[in-house]
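My current task is to audit a protein record that another person submitted. I have pasted the whole thing underneath without changing anything:
***
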Amino acid sequence: MDPWSAHEDDRPYIRPVRSFNPWLAVAAIGIAAWLGAFYFRYSLEQPTAPAPSAAPPLAVPAPTAEPAVRHALETPPSSSLPTLENSDSLLRDSAAGLIGKQAFTDLVVPTQLVRRVVATVDNLPRSTAPTRAMPFNPVPGAFDGVNFERYAPYVHVIEALDAHALVQGYARLYPLFQRAYEELGFPGKYFNDRLMEAIDDLVAAPELATPPKVLRSRVLYEFADPDLETRSAGQKILLRMGPENAARVKDKLWQIRRELIAASSRRP
Protein backbone atom coordinates (compact mmCIF):
# COMPACT_ATOMS: atom_id res chain seq x y z
CA MET A 1 0.00 0.00 0.00
CA ASP A 2 1.28 3.49 -0.91
CA PRO A 3 2.22 5.64 2.06
CA TRP A 4 -0.47 8.13 3.01
CA SER A 5 1.24 11.48 2.53
CA ALA A 6 0.90 14.68 0.59
CA HIS A 7 2.96 16.88 -1.64
CA GLU A 8 4.18 20.23 -0.37
CA ASP A 9 1.58 22.16 -2.36
CA ASP A 10 -1.31 20.24 -0.83
CA ARG A 11 -0.88 21.41 2.75
CA PRO A 12 -2.60 21.67 5.21
CA TYR A 13 -3.94 18.34 4.00
CA ILE A 14 -1.48 15.84 5.50
CA ARG A 15 1.48 16.61 7.67
CA PRO A 16 4.42 14.20 7.82
CA VAL A 17 4.52 12.00 10.88
CA ARG A 18 7.27 13.02 13.27
CA SER A 19 9.74 10.25 13.85
CA PHE A 20 10.44 11.01 17.50
CA ASN A 21 8.92 14.23 18.67
CA PRO A 22 5.92 13.44 20.88
CA TRP A 23 3.61 16.27 21.82
CA LEU A 24 3.92 17.05 25.52
CA ALA A 25 0.83 18.33 27.33
CA VAL A 26 1.84 20.90 29.94
CA ALA A 27 -0.76 21.76 32.58
CA ALA A 28 -0.15 24.88 34.65
CA ILE A 29 -1.27 24.27 38.24
CA GLY A 30 -0.67 26.97 40.82
CA ILE A 31 -1.79 27.80 44.35
CA ALA A 32 -1.83 31.48 45.37
CA ALA A 33 -1.42 32.29 49.09
CA TRP A 34 -1.11 35.42 51.13
CA LEU A 35 2.29 35.67 52.75
CA GLY A 36 3.12 38.17 55.50
CA ALA A 37 4.13 38.36 59.09
CA PHE A 38 4.10 40.93 61.82
CA TYR A 39 7.33 41.03 63.77
CA PHE A 40 7.39 42.69 67.14
CA ARG A 41 10.48 43.41 69.22
CA TYR A 42 10.14 43.59 72.91
CA SER A 43 12.72 45.07 75.32
CA LEU A 44 12.74 44.32 79.00
CA GLU A 45 14.06 47.78 79.78
CA GLN A 46 12.16 49.87 77.29
CA PRO A 47 9.35 48.80 75.00
CA THR A 48 9.77 49.72 71.37
CA ALA A 49 7.24 50.17 68.63
CA PRO A 50 6.63 47.10 66.55
CA ALA A 51 8.49 46.93 63.30
CA PRO A 52 6.29 47.71 60.30
CA SER A 53 4.71 44.67 58.81
CA ALA A 54 5.88 43.34 55.51
CA ALA A 55 3.36 44.05 52.79
CA PRO A 56 1.86 40.78 51.62
CA PRO A 57 2.43 40.07 47.96
CA LEU A 58 -0.56 40.28 45.66
CA ALA A 59 -2.18 36.95 45.05
CA VAL A 60 -1.85 35.97 41.41
CA PRO A 61 -4.66 33.72 40.16
CA ALA A 62 -3.38 30.43 38.89
CA PRO A 63 -3.72 30.08 35.12
CA THR A 64 -6.55 27.85 34.10
CA ALA A 65 -5.20 24.91 32.17
CA GLU A 66 -7.20 23.89 29.13
CA PRO A 67 -8.38 20.31 29.56
CA ALA A 68 -6.48 17.87 27.40
CA VAL A 69 -9.74 16.24 26.29
CA ARG A 70 -12.99 18.21 26.20
CA HIS A 71 -15.37 15.71 24.60
CA ALA A 72 -14.22 12.25 25.59
CA LEU A 73 -16.07 9.26 24.14
CA GLU A 74 -16.61 5.87 25.67
CA THR A 75 -14.87 3.61 23.18
CA PRO A 76 -14.14 -0.11 22.85
CA PRO A 77 -10.65 -1.54 23.26
CA SER A 78 -8.64 -0.95 20.11
CA SER A 79 -7.69 -4.64 20.13
CA SER A 80 -11.24 -5.44 18.99
CA LEU A 81 -10.74 -3.46 15.76
CA PRO A 82 -8.64 -4.07 12.67
CA THR A 83 -5.48 -2.08 12.09
CA LEU A 84 -5.80 1.29 10.41
CA GLU A 85 -4.19 -0.15 7.28
CA ASN A 86 -6.82 -2.91 7.12
CA SER A 87 -9.88 -0.88 8.10
CA ASP A 88 -11.33 -0.05 4.68
CA SER A 89 -13.52 -3.15 4.48
CA LEU A 90 -15.08 -2.45 7.88
CA LEU A 91 -15.62 1.23 7.06
CA ARG A 92 -17.16 0.43 3.68
CA ASP A 93 -19.66 -1.92 5.30
CA SER A 94 -20.48 0.59 8.03
CA ALA A 95 -20.90 3.51 5.64
CA ALA A 96 -22.94 1.50 3.13
CA GLY A 97 -25.21 0.40 5.95
CA LEU A 98 -25.84 4.03 6.91
CA ILE A 99 -26.37 5.62 3.49
CA GLY A 100 -27.21 2.64 1.28
CA LYS A 101 -25.02 0.61 -1.06
CA GLN A 102 -25.90 2.55 -4.22
CA ALA A 103 -25.28 5.94 -2.64
CA PHE A 104 -21.99 4.66 -1.27
CA THR A 105 -20.93 3.43 -4.72
CA ASP A 106 -21.93 6.69 -6.39
CA LEU A 107 -20.58 9.18 -3.89
CA VAL A 108 -17.82 7.74 -1.71
CA VAL A 109 -14.14 7.14 -2.44
CA PRO A 110 -13.76 3.56 -1.13
CA THR A 111 -10.10 3.62 -0.10
CA GLN A 112 -8.22 5.12 2.85
CA LEU A 113 -11.59 6.02 4.33
CA VAL A 114 -10.57 6.68 7.92
CA ARG A 115 -7.59 8.80 6.89
CA ARG A 116 -9.71 10.75 4.40
CA VAL A 117 -12.39 11.50 6.97
CA VAL A 118 -9.83 12.60 9.55
CA ALA A 119 -7.87 14.79 7.11
CA THR A 120 -11.07 16.43 5.85
CA VAL A 121 -12.39 17.13 9.35
CA ASP A 122 -9.07 18.70 10.30
CA ASN A 123 -9.00 20.83 7.15
CA LEU A 124 -12.59 22.14 7.20
CA PRO A 125 -11.97 24.92 9.77
CA ARG A 126 -8.81 25.95 7.90
CA SER A 127 -8.53 28.21 4.89
CA THR A 128 -8.30 25.33 2.41
CA ALA A 129 -9.54 21.74 2.26
CA PRO A 130 -7.92 19.94 -0.71
CA THR A 131 -10.42 17.79 -2.56
CA ARG A 132 -7.92 14.96 -2.93
CA ALA A 133 -8.21 14.41 0.83
CA MET A 134 -11.98 14.13 0.86
CA PRO A 135 -13.91 10.86 1.18
CA PHE A 136 -16.47 11.95 -1.45
CA ASN A 137 -16.23 11.95 -5.22
CA PRO A 138 -16.12 15.46 -6.74
CA VAL A 139 -19.46 17.17 -7.19
CA PRO A 140 -20.31 17.08 -10.92
CA GLY A 141 -20.95 20.24 -12.89
CA ALA A 142 -19.42 23.70 -12.71
CA PHE A 143 -19.77 26.06 -9.80
CA ASP A 144 -21.30 29.21 -11.22
CA GLY A 145 -23.16 30.58 -8.23
CA VAL A 146 -26.60 29.25 -9.23
CA ASN A 147 -26.14 25.58 -10.05
CA PHE A 148 -27.17 24.30 -6.63
CA GLU A 149 -28.99 21.21 -7.90
CA ARG A 150 -25.69 19.45 -8.41
CA TYR A 151 -25.41 19.18 -4.63
CA ALA A 152 -28.82 17.51 -4.29
CA PRO A 153 -27.61 13.87 -4.14
CA TYR A 154 -25.16 14.71 -1.35
CA VAL A 155 -27.71 16.72 0.62
CA HIS A 156 -30.30 13.95 0.31
CA VAL A 157 -27.83 11.43 1.69
CA ILE A 158 -26.91 13.73 4.59
CA GLU A 159 -30.56 14.36 5.42
CA ALA A 160 -31.33 10.65 5.41
CA LEU A 161 -28.62 9.87 7.97
CA ASP A 162 -29.76 8.58 11.34
CA ALA A 163 -27.71 10.87 13.59
CA HIS A 164 -27.92 8.53 16.57
CA ALA A 165 -26.80 5.47 14.57
CA LEU A 166 -24.03 7.52 12.92
CA VAL A 167 -22.56 8.65 16.25
CA GLN A 168 -22.88 5.20 17.81
CA GLY A 169 -20.98 3.66 14.90
CA TYR A 170 -18.39 6.42 15.07
CA ALA A 171 -17.85 5.79 18.79
CA ARG A 172 -17.38 2.05 18.19
CA LEU A 173 -14.74 2.75 15.56
CA TYR A 174 -13.23 5.75 17.32
CA PRO A 175 -9.78 4.24 18.09
CA LEU A 176 -9.19 4.07 14.31
CA PHE A 177 -9.97 7.78 13.88
CA GLN A 178 -7.77 8.68 16.83
CA ARG A 179 -4.89 6.66 15.42
CA ALA A 180 -5.24 8.38 12.04
CA TYR A 181 -5.33 11.81 13.71
CA GLU A 182 -2.12 11.14 15.61
CA GLU A 183 -0.55 9.82 12.41
CA LEU A 184 -1.59 13.05 10.70
CA GLY A 185 0.76 14.93 12.99
CA PHE A 186 -1.17 15.50 16.22
CA PRO A 187 0.11 13.07 18.86
CA GLY A 188 -1.54 13.76 22.19
CA LYS A 189 -4.47 15.60 20.59
CA TYR A 190 -8.02 14.21 20.70
CA PHE A 191 -9.74 13.85 17.33
CA ASN A 192 -13.29 14.10 18.67
CA ASP A 193 -12.48 17.58 20.00
CA ARG A 194 -11.36 18.60 16.51
CA LEU A 195 -14.55 17.15 15.06
CA MET A 196 -16.61 19.30 17.45
CA GLU A 197 -14.57 22.36 16.41
CA ALA A 198 -15.26 21.61 12.75
CA ILE A 199 -19.00 21.20 13.34
CA ASP A 200 -19.16 24.41 15.38
CA ASP A 201 -17.37 26.26 12.58
CA LEU A 202 -19.77 24.89 9.97
CA VAL A 203 -22.96 25.80 11.82
CA ALA A 204 -21.54 29.30 12.35
CA ALA A 205 -21.52 29.90 8.58
CA PRO A 206 -23.53 33.00 7.67
CA GLU A 207 -27.12 32.41 6.60
CA LEU A 208 -27.79 34.32 3.43
CA ALA A 209 -31.22 35.27 2.15
CA THR A 210 -30.05 35.09 -1.46
CA PRO A 211 -27.28 33.13 -3.20
CA PRO A 212 -23.90 34.86 -2.87
CA LYS A 213 -22.46 36.60 -5.89
CA VAL A 214 -19.35 35.06 -7.37
CA LEU A 215 -16.58 36.30 -9.64
CA ARG A 216 -14.41 34.23 -11.92
CA SER A 217 -10.71 34.71 -11.25
CA ARG A 218 -8.73 32.96 -13.97
CA VAL A 219 -10.06 29.40 -13.74
CA LEU A 220 -11.57 29.61 -10.25
CA TYR A 221 -14.74 31.15 -8.86
CA GLU A 222 -14.46 33.44 -5.85
CA PHE A 223 -17.08 35.14 -3.75
CA ALA A 224 -17.56 38.80 -4.61
CA ASP A 225 -17.99 39.64 -0.92
CA PRO A 226 -14.47 39.77 0.63
CA ASP A 227 -15.84 38.62 3.99
CA LEU A 228 -17.26 35.44 2.46
CA GLU A 229 -14.07 34.77 0.53
CA THR A 230 -12.02 34.83 3.75
CA ARG A 231 -14.27 32.29 5.49
CA SER A 232 -13.05 28.81 6.36
CA ALA A 233 -13.04 26.07 3.74
CA GLY A 234 -15.99 24.35 5.42
CA GLN A 235 -18.12 27.48 5.55
CA LYS A 236 -17.40 28.24 1.90
CA ILE A 237 -18.53 24.73 0.95
CA LEU A 238 -21.87 25.40 2.65
CA LEU A 239 -22.17 28.79 0.97
CA ARG A 240 -21.55 27.21 -2.44
CA MET A 241 -24.46 24.84 -1.85
CA GLY A 242 -26.96 27.69 -1.79
CA PRO A 243 -29.11 28.88 1.14
CA GLU A 244 -31.65 26.03 1.09
CA ASN A 245 -29.13 23.22 0.86
CA ALA A 246 -26.95 24.84 3.53
CA ALA A 247 -29.91 25.12 5.92
CA ARG A 248 -30.73 21.43 5.46
CA VAL A 249 -27.14 20.39 6.08
CA LYS A 250 -26.90 22.62 9.15
CA ASP A 251 -30.01 21.04 10.61
CA LYS A 252 -28.41 17.60 10.35
CA LEU A 253 -25.14 18.91 11.80
CA TRP A 254 -27.03 20.17 14.86
CA GLN A 255 -28.55 16.71 15.29
CA ILE A 256 -25.13 15.07 15.04
CA ARG A 257 -23.67 17.59 17.48
CA ARG A 258 -26.36 16.80 20.06
CA GLU A 259 -25.66 13.08 19.71
CA LEU A 260 -21.91 13.66 20.12
CA ILE A 261 -22.49 15.68 23.29
CA ALA A 262 -24.76 12.94 24.64
CA ALA A 263 -22.17 10.26 23.79
CA SER A 264 -19.40 12.18 25.52
CA SER A 265 -21.49 12.91 28.65
CA ARG A 266 -22.21 9.21 29.11
CA ARG A 267 -18.53 8.51 29.67
CA PRO A 268 -17.96 7.55 33.33
User: Anything to note?
Assistant: The chain has ten helices and two strands.
